[in-house]
Specification:
Blueprint lengths: L30 H25 L1 H33 L7 E5 L5 H12 L4 E7 L1 H12 L2 H5 L9 E6 L4 H11 L5 E6 L2 H42 L1 H9 L4 H44 L11 H26 L8
Antiparallel strand pairs: 1-3, 1-4, 2-3
């Protein structure tokens, strides 16, 4: 019998990897390189915005001055209103309660009540007026001294004048109710009409300043929108070229956003300077007026927080105006092939 021939295995063919052509190689960009390019473009956009503002000094200065005046007005009024709150809070005769005690209350009980009430956290101080002191004062002020001396007994009750710590009408009413709970108290008289009028005027001033701030903030945004719109129109051909070579909308948008922020930030800094100059100019007469009214308060200026917040707030408004302008007008500029 013939031997079974063992089939030979087919020779393996070597699979060679296709060689890359030496001409074109795929470019791979790392995340670090992208971040570096993004950071450098932000820096260049910022310097480009400053350079264009410096080259157009006249128009840039007018835009910054308009923004500064629009922001300085509500800021200055807000500082003056804060000073008014501090000054009215420090008045000695601002709001007090006249607590009339019963006629049979002796002087020692009257003083003990005054000391107890003065120890309360919601009472600043108390003033004791005895029946004899009240009669003497009434005789001196009324002109009926002879008539009062003819009376068999002193008709005036003992009095404790209570000066509360807060001038809020609600707090004053609550304090009045608590004082009336004392068995020695006959009547607690509180004149809060002028206090309510004062609080109403201050609240009205706050709302007016808020409305003025919103209106002028909108004006700042519109000023920046118009400025950036003109800048876009003046650089139309440059934008078309950048888009032809592959520039994205974000790449084109970034310099204009920095321009709007720089306009707003510079306007905010100038607004701070204008407010400080105005307060310095008004400080002398106002402090003299306060001194004539025996007040130890002085005119306060912008705080550190306001000095930092106002330029940043103005810069955000400028950034918002630039974003609106770029989003509205940049899409209209496309290359025509």
């Amino acid at each position: 019998m013939a031997r079974n021939a063992t089939p030979r295995k087919a020779p393996r063919q070597r699979l060679e990897k296709p060689r890359r052509s030496a001409g074109a190689q795929s470019a791979q960009t790392s995340l670090r390189d992208r971040f570096t390019a993004w950071r450098l473009h932000h820096r260049d956009s910022f310097y480009d915005a400053l350079g264009r503002m410096r080259r157009a000094r006249a128009s840039s200065a007018m835009t910054i001055v308009v923004i500064a005046i629009a922001l300085a007005l509500p800021s200055g009024l807000s500082v003056l209103l804060d000073n008014a709150k501090v000054i009215t809070r420090g008045w000695d005769g601002n709001a007090h309660l006249s607590v009339f005690l019963k006629l049979d209350t002796d002087d020692s009980t009257q003083r003990k009540l005054a000391e107890q009430w003065q120890a309360r956290p919601d009472i600043q101080r108390t003033q004791v007026i005895t029946r004899q002191q009240a009669l003497a004062e009434f005789q001196a002020l009324s002109g009926f001294g002879d008539v009062l001396q003819a009376l068999p007994d002193n008709p005036l009750p003992p009095l404790i004048v209570v000066f509360p710590d807060s001038t809020d009408p609600v707090s004053l009413k609550a304090l009045q109710n608590r004082l009336e709970e004392s068995p020695a108290v006959d009547l607690v008289q509180l004149d809060v009409e002028w206090v309510r009028r004062l609080h109403a005027m201050i609240e009205l001033g706050e709302r007016m300043i808020t409305a003025l701030t919103l209106a002028l903030a909108l004006a700042v945004v519109l000023v920046v929108v118009n400025t950036i719109r003109l800048a876009i129109e003046s650089r139309r051909e440059e934008i078309v070229v950048v888009k032809i070579v592959g520039g994205t909308d974000g790449f084109v948008r970034r310099p204009f956003l920095y321009t709007g922020f720089c306009f707003g930030f510079a306007g905010g800094l100038l607004a701070v300077i204008l407010v400080q100059i105005a307060l310095w100019w008004l400080g002398g007469p106002i402090n003299e007026l306060l001194r004539l009214y025996s007040s130890d308060q002085t005119l306060a200026t912008l705080g550190i927080s306001s000095l930092l917040t106002l330029p940043l707030f103005s810069g955000i408004l400028g950034l918002l105006g630039a974003w609106l302008a770029v989003g509205r007008h940049l899409g209209e500029i496309e290359p025509n092939f």
